Amino acid sequence: MAGSSSATLVNARDHGLPLPAAAYVMSPYADLTLAGATMETRREADPLLQPGSTSAPASNDYTAGQDAALGLIARCSPT
After folding, report:
1. What is the distance between the alpha carbons of residues 24 and 39, in angstroms, rounded to a whole number?
2. Per-residue pLDDT of the chain in tens (79 residues, 90 and over written 9)
3. Whole-angstrom distance, CA of residue 53 vs CA of residue 6
4. Cβ–Cβ contacts within 10 Å for residue 12, how many?
5. Which residues contact 49 (CB under 8 A, 6 or more apart)?
6. CA distances from residue 58 to 13, 19, 29, 39, 49 in whole angstroms, order as listed
7. Total-model pTM
8. Which among 3, 48, 56, 55 has a CA at the least distance from the CA of 25?
């Protein structure tokens, strides 16, 4: 998942560990809150994840009940 990859890189950076020269992260789950403006403006382009969809509850499994907007959970949170 993009979230765990991004969180690992941010945590490594915050602890002064060596970082890769680059990272390529691609995932529709970068925003686990499903609250970004593109959820509406790009709805037709990505029908996989939409508010109220059956895919949304999967983020609850990943966050284990924590707030999906927490920094190390969703690095691309719109909040």
Report:
1. 22
2. 556 777 788 889 999 999 999 988 766 566 777 777 877 888 787 766 666 665 555 667 777 888 877 767 765 544 4
3. 24
4. 13
5. 28, 29, 34, 39, 55, 56
6. 28, 29, 10, 17, 10
7. 0.49
8. 3
